[in-house]
Design a protein that fits this description.
The complex is a heterodimer.
Chain A lengths: L1 E14 L7 E14 L3 E5 L6 H8 L7 E6 L2 E2 L5 H5 L2 E4 L13 H12 L4 H14 L16 H13 L5 E5 L7 H18 L2 E5 L3 H7 L2 E6 L2 E7 H6 L4 H9 L48 E3 L2 E3 L5
Chain B lengths: L19 H9 L3 H18 L1 H4 L37 H37 L1 H16 L2 H12 L3 H28 L2 H8 L4 H9 L4 H24 L11 H7 L8 H29 L6
Helix pairs in contact in B: 1-12, 2-4, 2-12, 4-5, 4-7, 4-10, 4-12, 5-7, 6-7, 7-10, 8-9, 10-11, 10-12, 11-12
Amino acid sequence: MNVIEVQNLKKHYPVRKPFKALKHVKALDGVSFSVPTKKTLGIVGESGCGKSTLAKTLMRLEVPTDGSVSLSGTDFTNMTGKDFHSAIQMIFQDPYNSINPRKKAWQLIAEPLLINTDLSKDECFKIACETMKKVGLRPELAHRYPHMFSGGQRQRIGIARALVMQPKVMILDEPVSALDVSIQAQVLNLLMKLQDDMDLTYLFISHDLHVVKHISDEILVMYLGKVVEYGARDKVFDDPKHPYTKALVASSPSILKEASDEPAIQGELPSPLNPPSGCAFHKRCPMATERCSKETPELTEKFGRKVACFEV
Amino acid sequence: MSETIALDLIDENEHVPDSFIKEFWNHFKQNKGAVAGLALIIVFVLIALAAPLLAPYNPTFLQDNALRLPPIWAEGGTWSYPLGTDDVGRDILSRLIHGARISMGIGFAVVILSLTSGLFLGLFAGYYGGKVDRLIMRFIDIVMAFPSILLAITVVSVMGPGISNAIIAVAIVAIPNFTRIVRASVMAERKKQYVMASKTFGASNFRIMVFEILPNCLAPLIVQATLGFSDGILNAAALGFLGLGAQPPTPEWGTMLADARPFIESSPWMVTLPGLCILFSVLGFNLFGDGLRDALDPRLKK
């Protein structure tokens, strides 16, 4: 059974400028995916492709324009606060920015409990200490303030905070990109161990393809609010079909292999206010034909994964 | 895998958590100036509380035979009036002791009134932004467009002279300072991810404003509150000088200062002593505020 199912999710922001017609930024334009229990979906794409909007919309911080999200079979707009917060939690990118510097470690970790449950402070403190152990922090540090912790430890606090509600789904918004490479590996391993121990389902948002490849079971590639390729990790990364995925994989630097023959991606991400006609990628695409500038390709099943491209 | 998530060891000296007050005091006492400031404040507050016990005379009693007596260290001073008497023969020491009551009271009242109203206006303006922000800040702009003492005079003239009306007038004048400081820090804090993180746990707007954002905006507010204390005393004294604040014979330091102005050359102690009282009480609050800011900000702790 799929723990999280997203159907045709859209988020359009109205943009009003004086003396100009009302326009919409289509930050998310019909995104659909589903993730089974204990699996990890990697979500990749350039900055501005709608990854963060997706995370915010799934966390109910933004109201979707259209589409539905169901968590373990229940539509998320019908869930009460407590049910919702124990179904899905989020880990943030910057451990220096995402935890309140005025709160002690245990207060930070226990905060979701204090808001969503009737547990007493002592009980919350105990649960916070147990959760600290789970993420590899000594419970003796519970009374320290965030500035007494290193970046990796702070990120562990962020992970513990997301875990106390015992969620089924976790959104990881670039959880390691602000950390040193050595710490990245530790935190990734911790996340994978927690996934095993607590039956977590991850939505792993990142622009670091190596990290995504390491942790994900399936990959979703986004471009300007749309899904361009979606399928099993090995298929998408080892044999990318969509020209955008190909370019992304080619432009990802590696110390192990020589630069690939695939040309790196050209040009800039178009303005989401004036997206190109037809396929949003056609202006940067080496394979584009006239049809691409007129019609929008649908996401269709090809080569064992879903691709939105006419030329594949 | 097990070693990669091994328990982290920071250092060996175990951190035994202190109670908040003990922890606060440990950091606060390292700042000698702040401790001196706190001592000054305590002295003034004690004097204010025990004024009727300490003062040798009634502060409004006129001694017919003792006009403008100099203090004991000057030629002609006597022990019966240690700090001398003023132009109508009132004992200056008694007036200063009772004046501590009034001036400290004015200072506290002004800071509490302007801080609470400025705090909530700034919090709402900075947190909600948009129309709420525009409405509140235009109101603040209007208040700021008037010279502060002129606005205070206007308010007092509408409500009538007297200490309580002077306090309200001075507090209204001080609101913009607090509002702008709170709004600026709230706007900076609001964009940080920890606020978004709180929203993802379902924290209410009130909880985010008061328990998440506000503690991070306190440092500049504390400094502003200490400055507001001195501004409050000085503005109230100015109103007293203009006959709109404390009414004679109330022993208010600012009013005493103003009353003694004609005798600044012949009897300089009449001006100097209330001036020194204002100086030291304001200094005490400023030093204390600085130390408080350092001790309250965990990022400045060593």
